[in-house]
Amino acid sequence: MKAGNCPDMTRWLPGLGLWLGWAATGGLACGGDPDSVSTLAKAKEIQFRPVPSGTEEQPYGFVDLEGKEVIAARFQHAYPFHQQLARVAVAGKWGFIDAGGDWKIPAGFDWAGDFSQGLACAQQSRGGRPWFGYLDRDGDWRIQPKFAQALPFTEGLAAVAVGSGPDRRWGYVDFMGIFAVKLQFQQARSFSEGLAAVAWEEALFGYIDRRGQIAIPARFQQAGPFQESRAAVNFNGRWGIIDETGAWRVEAKFEFAGPYHNGLATLKTPSGMGAVNLLGQWQIEPQYRVLKDFSEGLAAFADPSGKFGFLNRQGKVVIAPQFLKAEAFHAGVALVEIPDGNRSVPALINAKGEILWRRGSS
């Protein structure tokens, strides 16, 4: 695998309050062709879903949206397709496959992230230490692996870190690997809607614009990405929601606040979880043990017994609670766990709650 033809510059996964902004929009990668990248951005994404096989040796394969096996189970780990490639792992090494299950980039990396804006962040160890860089779609290094940490490209910039321990600092590089925002932050998140959350010496988060200028001063313990012109933040141990000026749209008084999806954001109160609209008004009253983010107009919720179902944006239950676990809908299907005797098995359902595939089905 030859090195990329970009300058050899030396400069540098979700939990509560930490979003990494894994965008998959099109963009111009270093050495790329604007027309080909534009075509990539407009290309229809491959809608195959990774599913567990139930065996330890080859745990994951892929099925299509009708539940038909399209790529046989032979991977230790597998993730959905992004920009027509899926990252998978075999024998502890990561690579990328195409829709036919063939290796587009052979498994030779200690870790790899999804493709975003034509590049994928990847890790390669050297001298007993992990180093991060960015691969193009041919598997060549477009930005050499010389960073201590790195996040995916979003909106033309990627957050990267250099150094170790208390001396580690974050900045932002462009597609050429050149710093667009110099190393200066203790922590940094990906750009979203023109703003990125960063933390300075006091370990408080604020937001900067793409020029590195302060847009919202640092005053938050945690800060999420802007989505639908709103961001969830933690202020003095409580969660609320701000707009792009830093003004409160939902007062910081909640146990948790999530990002907006489909015009709604989840909030947690002592009486349960609910969702507010863009005006900060309750759309779904707080009552659920769990309420996940909305996707394609539906959100998974858990009833008092812990069983999961799905409700719509009006709060109407459209799939009754019956699942042991439930993930978000994507391309019309959702991964759930269903009871099977004394065990549970994964399954794919459609928006009507009908089972399209279950482990062990042919």
Overview of the structural elements:
With 362 residues, the protein is an all-beta fold. The chain is 2% helix and 51% strand. The protein is built from 1 helix and 35 strands. The strands form 9 sheets. Strands 4-5-6-7 form a 4-stranded antiparallel sheet, with no helix packed on it. Strand 33 and strand 34 form a beta hairpin. The longest helix has 9 residues. The two termini are 39 Å apart.
Describe how the helices and strands are arranged.
Elements: H1 34-42, E1 49-52, E2 60-63, E3 69-75, E4 77-82, E5 85-90, E6 93-97, E7 103-109, E8 111-116, E9 119-126, E10 129-135, E11 141-147, E12 149-150, E13 158-162, E14 169-173, E15 179-185, E16 187-188, E17 196-199, E18 205-208, E19 214-220, E20 222-223, E21 230-235, E22 238-243, E23 248-254, E24 256-257, E25 265-269, E26 272-276, E27 282-288, E28 290-291, E29 298-302, E30 308-312, E31 317-323, E32 325-326, E33 333-340, E34 343-350, E35 355-358
Antiparallel strand pairs: 1-2, 2-3, 4-5, 5-6, 6-7, 8-9, 9-10, 10-11, 12-13, 13-14, 14-15, 16-17, 17-18, 18-19, 20-21, 21-22, 22-23, 24-25, 25-26, 26-27, 28-29, 29-30, 30-31, 32-33, 33-34, 34-35
Kindly summarize this structure in a few lines.
The protein is an all-beta fold and 362 residues long. 2% of the residues lie in helices and 51% in strands. The protein is built from one helix and 35 strands.
